[in-house]
Amino acid sequence: MYLGLEFKTLSAVPHFLWAVGGDRQIYLHVHGLEIPIRVKEESYENERWLPLEGFSGRLLPTDRYHFSTYDGTKDRSIDHIRLPSMAWQWEGDWQLELTLDGEPLDHDGWSYAIDFPAQFYPTKNWKSCVRRRKWIRYRKYSAMNSWCAIAPLHKDPTQEPFIDVSIGGNQMPYAPVGSLSVWGSYCTQSCYVQSRSPTGLVWVLLCSGRAMIRKGVTKDCPTGEIWLDVKSPNDTKLSVVSVGYNSVWAVSTDTRVWFRKGIDGTAAGVSETAAVGNSWLEVTGNMVHVSVGPNDQVFAVGEMDKCIYWRSGVAPNDPTGKRWRLIQAPMHLSRTSSLSSFNSTAPQSKHRSLTTLNEKTELKSNINLCNSWEESHSAPIEHTLPIKASAETTTDTKPDNSKNTGNIENIDLTGKSYETTLKNPRAWSPVRSVGSVVGMEAHPESDSSVFDIDSGLYYDDEVSQAAWGTCETMWSFVEAGACNIDPLQVPHWFSDTQNAINTDLISKWRIEILDNLKSRNSYPNIDLSVYGVAIEEKGWTRSCESRLLNVHGTFEDCILTVHWHSSENSGTMSVFNPDGATIKFILNLSEITSIITSSEPGCPRLTISVPNQFKDPIKIQFTSEMEQEEWLNTLIGIVAQINKLSGKPSTDSVWVVTNQGEILNWDPASSSLNCKMNKEGLYTKEIQVFGKDVIAGFTTILHNNFPPGSILKLSGCLHDVIDRFTINLLGPEIKKQRHKVQSEIDNIPFHFNPRFDQLAVVCNTKIFNSWGVEERYELPFIAGQEFSIIILCKQEGFQVIVNKKLLCLFEHRLSPDSIASVEVLGPLKLYEMEYSCTAPIVGPEEMVWRLMGGHLRRVESVGVVVWGIAHDHTAWVYTGGWGGGPLKGLGSNEGIHPMTDTQTYCVYENQRWNPLMGYTSTGLPTDRHMWSDITGKHKRTREHTKLLNRHWHWISEWIIDYNTPGGVDSDGWQYATDFPAPYHSKKLFTDCVRRRRWYRRAQLNTEGPWIRAGNTALVDISLWANNENVTVWAITLGGDALYRGGVTPSTPAGTNWQHVNSPQALTAVSTYNNILWVVGRKRRALLQRRHYNRKSNRWRLIEAPKFSFMFGEKTTSTIGVKVISLTEGIAWAVLYNGAIAIRSAVTRDQPEGQRWEHVTEGDTRFKQVSAGEREVWAVCAAGAVARRRGLATEMPAGAAWQFVLHVGAHHVSATGSRL
Q1: Please, are residues 313 and 251 in contact by the beta-carbon 8 Å criterion?
Q2: How far is CA 543 from CA 539, 607, 622, 651, in A?
Q3: Tell me: the pLDDT tens digits for 324-356?
Q4: Which of 343, 554, 887, 1096 is the most exposed place for a label (fewest CB within 10 A)?
Q5: Per-residue pLDDT for 1216 more than 70?
Q6: Contact predicate 859/867, CB 8 Å
Q7: Average pLDDT, integer, range 1055-1081
């Protein structure tokens, strides 16, 4: 849409558009950012202790400034810190930061030290001679989505008439993320056009048609070193040049298109050959302008038709592409016209600009252009000023809308009546406009008119008239610097013709065929019994050669066979030896609970979980990726059909994300279909006891514990010779560290022990390895005879019925919710064992995990709304579909969208110092590999780093990482005394080793039931729903807190992000029932606030957990929090040492809770936890998914962890589960 602004040229990168205006000045347009650009200003107030005055701002001459930077080298008086330009606004006043490295400070925010610049501490002691505190204030860029003039270098802008501008450098090698640089040229220079690539390479064209490049443009020298000539193509002069990542395209004065060979953007800053290239190659087609995108995709404007074209087939192996394709660029535009009225008496009105086409078209009063109005933040320039109606028009003005619209032809279009309206014309000049000038400082005291409410322009909201039509203007310029097109997934607006219509779709013959097909079943009287069966339903078999992981950890050859009966909805999977005659094992397909990929580069594999038959998952390796994907699709389709899984899962689902980015879903609603309720309202599960050795002891898990209402039925036969037997309802196993880790059971809530030698039945309870007082009853059993036992859990105790007669009622001494399993021990034979409960009984063998499609790093669900975060920190929202990617054909295509994700591969280059040669790649025999992973235990080299599968492709070369934690020197090295001591950036005398990190990025192209939710980079997200109200909080990559507005079940993606100020950078977030907890980046800080009013800046610091015994190591130090998850009354936290802790009594009246409690048993370490209303799930460090059992009101921490899935999980979400 035409914005009413006239420009000569444009240059763009994502979110930033620079232009040369009609007045030959530079303008900037910032757009597409979901959160505002915010900068934190800091100033340190320093004081020294004086004998008579105490702490004072009077410092020694050798001291730092009273208000200074962190290192004290620069004066930072808060009275002199001004906004850099009028495009910025302050967010609040100066505030004190009341934490120091996560530790709380006093209310004045002072930290103390012996002297400058020694280490500062939160508390004062007798040696504290200096102190300081930090003042912070945020400023926000307020000129979003509007054009702003860049302040010129000269007071008189006419002395600096620009003719071209170029922005780039956003992908400059080794430069910090977000780096940009702008080059410009003006009339007094000999060059009139330049192009800057994403990597920083600069090409310019001279007025004579010669090309030049700037040598040596790097992150350390952004202006380069020297200009070098580039020979133009023979017998021609260049008129346009455009630089991409690894390519340079140009157009000559005779409209021929040229491609420069030999360009390498990654090495262009250090290699002259990589910057200049070696030769020109002519490309077919005649164009007047060309532009290259950040991934080397090429756009151009045609010579004859002036249409926009895209070069298809451009790839790293074919940089010139295949052919030019026409882009569908409709020319139906709206253009600004002077149809707005001016009414300075409307106090609530706003200045708006209205747009219409500048052509003779009949005006229609019923057109509503409310959506096209745009609040003006930029300086009005030619053809954009609101037009004031003439005197004839305003004399008889009435509130009626039709009166105003009927006299449009009488509006003054000259603009002269507008001249006397402004209180201060300088306020709207391109140089002095508020929010319009970048690089010029605002002075409220001198520019009072600029900040005066009455000095603005107001637009009458009741005037809305526009004319629309077809614009015949031809394209003359295209800028692709912000257009990152994936050549494998071309957008819909690429078309060879603007109005491509398939005539076959409306042909008469096709319509007749469709009508005949619709009416083919309209003969109800036909007797189909006389016809034979056209297709007989039978089963099918599929086989392939593969390799199976054996118990020794190696793969051995085998033959995999699946036989499926579709009519019976059953099938088997058999694994044969390579001879095809002998079988290794056979399993029922209905027993499969999960199927995921577990591939390694060059080794396509599947992992199949069958907990009923195998403790560990089955791993199968295939000969090719295509075959692996076909088997994955087949097996998942069969398992889904058996378990009746399709479409969108229920709101109580649990979501799991694997280490390879696959998303799994367990729907309790489908699992409960297999659990039938009896007449008493109980769910019953028969426990297989056939062939079990009861003499040695038989133990089985009670998946729902044994709460009141549960029943355990046993029947069997006693041996002829028997002294006693035992039935124990056991508590959870606890791992204890002695000389080795051992599992013990400290609690037995109910011990049932018939003793034939004493002719009595003894009942008791064991609490913390100590038996209580025995209760004895008459022995009802006879040796050698059959028996039946029923144990019923009631509110008051355990009721025991033997042979249909009541034996006893044993009162509870421990909560029955803590019962995790049942044990039967003694000389007897069991016939049956039946376990009944009031809730559906679902164990790991009944949990069927469905592969949903897509590729993410984490998923958060609140039932009605599901969000995800990819590895590249982009946010995605679940659409309700199923399939995509390798799962094509399983579900419908509804809700399936293209997805991309990016991962970074890192390798470490290690070196050791020796006296003769300095640092070399020759290490000691005991050293780590000279090219390794971060641990040094595994060898990793750049040459042997391969992509996971064919869907991934490299998008960068290997680059040194200058942002490695701990700091690096100018070459990217980190130094240490030895491997693996702490690393630092500066070499010391005692440093004998060094390392540096190399990284390379790869991108995945796939599909899934997910749609992208904006471009903001996120690291964590938390959701909570209360009926139709859905609350979404997130943490950005920079550590800011965001709130998502407009999220509902019907609009799960929401509308916009709202920024919330926080006192420090954040890493994790959790919300529940209008309570918000976040974790600070300094690990020890836990911040809590109520978010009834999101504009409030009030945060409360919560003490970090402290424990005296952790994983066999005695410590009383504070342990940092890594992950937090809130639920009803409890805050669950994963600490940095892998332990899990809970904070009890968290309510709306007391949102900070009361105290911390350690709940991790043994040496099991965790990396993530997710808490729902009645469910808590976690992922251990080894990747197994665990479910917390025994959760009850009197036991908020639960009883024990039950491991349900062993798939190498990375993340689990149970916040929406209400089982």
Answers
A1: no
A2: 14, 17, 12, 38
A3: 988 876 654 443 333 333 333 333 333 332 232
A4: 554
A5: yes
A6: yes
A7: 88
Q: Which residues contact 393 (CB under 8 A, 6 or more apart)?
A: 341, 407, 410, 411, 412
d(CA 688, CA 714) in angstroms, rounded, equals 12
pLDDT at 605 over 50: yes
Average of per-residue pLDDT values in the chain: 81
Closest CA to 1023 of 779, 848, 1216: 1216
The enclosing H or E element of 563 equals strand 555-565
The per-type count for the chain, helices as H runs and strands as E runs, is: 6, 83
Q: 1157-1191 pLDDT, tens per residue?
A: 888 666 788 999 999 888 899 999 999 999 998 78
Instruction: Report how far apart, in Å, the C-alpha atoms of 479 and of each of 10, 165, 212, 294, 998 are.
Output: 7, 12, 21, 11, 33
**Tokens representing residue 849 in the block:** 């995990």
Domain ranges of the chain: 7-33+144-326, 38-141, 537-643, 683-837, 902-1006
Give Cα separations from 517 to 514, 520, 522, 534 (angstroms).
Answer: 5, 5, 10, 18
Q: How far is CA 542 from CA 575, 599, 889, in A?
A: 12, 22, 18
For residue 381, the one-letter residue type is: I
Q: Which residue has the tokens 């779709």?
A: 505
CATH architecture of the domain covering 683-837:
Sandwich (2.60)
> Are the CB atoms for 150 and 85 separated by under 8 Å?
no
Return the CA Rg of the chain: 37
Task: Give the phi and the psi of residue 1121 in degrees, each rounded to 5.
Answer: -95, 135
Q: Which helix (H) or strand (E) holds 902?
A: strand 897-914
Cα–Cα distance measured from residue 465 to residue 368, given in angstroms and rounded to the nearest whole number: 8
CA distance 1100 to 1090: 10
pLDDT of residue 1091: 57
Q: How deeply is 1180 buried, as exposed, middle or buried, from its count of CB atoms within 10 A (0-12, 13-18, 19+)?
A: buried
In the predicted structure, residue 627 carries a pLDDT above the cut 90: yes
Residues sharing a CB contact under 8 Å with residue 510, sequence separation 6 or more, in sequence order: 504
CATH 3.30.70 correct for 7-33+144-326: no
First to last CA, the chain: 52
Check residues 66 and 402 and name the one with the higher pLDDT. Answer: 66
SS3 807: strand
